[in-house]
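Memo to structure team: turn this sequence into structure tokens by end of day. - J.P.
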Amino acid sequence: MFVDSHCHFHLLEDNADTDRALAAALDEGVEHFLNVAIDVESRDALIALAERHTEISTSIGVHPSGTGEDPDEETLAALADHPLIVAVGETGLDYAYNEDRPEWQRERFRRHVRAARLIGKPVIVHTRAAPQDTLAILREEGAREVGGIIHCFTEDWPTARAMLDEGFHISLSGIVTFRNADALRGTAAHIPGDRLLIETDCPYLAPVPHRGRENQPAYVRHVAECLAEVRGESVEEVAAVTSENFYRLFPQTRPAHASA
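Reply from structure team:
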């Protein structure tokens, strides 16, 4: 059984697609989904979705490129104080379209880490073209205290090693299946089994053989299949290890049949 450690059901093209996407993923053996927030305005809708479907948990946070409400750490911590909200984020730094490296992104990231520490919940980190600043803020803000996930990891092995040293898990998306991702596959081969996660980031980044289409949580199997090949493991081994890693990080999401 698989776990999709990072997806966005609420961003699928049609709201009616949520039930179909969930059913298709369950049929493919995906048993749990972390439906990740990109703003705080959608909090109630994300909680309602998780209340309707026990297979779904959620988070609260403002994407580094988000333009909506931007709460302080105390407010963010209060918003995250709900049993179905298991993490703070996604948060982090995205310099791909912000070459001036805006200070407001760094300050927003710091507030999220502080909020996570206030309530003792892991952080979901988005980092793009900003590995050194991401690492610096994780260290300076004591993120090791709560840990979390570096989602959609695309950096090199030294960066992965540094993030692992800060107590974070590394989650790989459909990018690892792309034809030009040889370097990332090489990094994936070195990630310790007990710190590895898989994700879709749906509706974005559909893996091969679905590249160019809207991504679906069911497609997380393709990420696992690719990792099994590059790591010399079976798909079943990758599924078991990555699922157990997720449940260890978020014990409140563990289904009864998956008791440790």
